[in-house]
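Lab notebook: predicted structure, single chain.

Context: the supervisor wants predicted structures on file for every construct in the current expression panel, including those that have not yet been purified. This is the next one on the list. No modifications to the sequence; it matches the entry in the shared construct table.
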Amino acid sequence: MPVIKWILGWLALPLLAAQSFTPPGLAQALQASRWQHRLLLIGAPTASQTDFQQQKKLLAASKKGLAERDFQVIEVVYDQLSPADRQCWTQQLAQPLAGFRVVLIGKDGGVKRTENQPLAPPTSSAPSIKCPFAARRCRMGDN
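Prediction complete. Output recorded below exactly as produced.
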């Protein structure tokens, strides 16, 4: 009988660990991606919002281009945010909790562009950030 309890205890351990796992918050994702990836945050009050769905379709059609430009996409649904994520969105990123938003975060962690309508996905041949040095590299073919 003690052997059965021991076995059942070990079998239950992964289930308990799985239940307590929570994905990293928005602030942690921003920190973890710094100097590693560009982030494209798509935000909306609900996941069913029209612009949000349209942006997801545009991005899904260009996964290869996003990967080539080191982009990671994070969906930010306002009605599902934790209090800490709400604070990050409104204070650190200075974005409203109303309406649709696309926020481009550079590898340095700074907000590079915001739009309130769906944004065409970046291509591998165009600079993702309006930077004179990046634009010059693209014109010279050194990207």
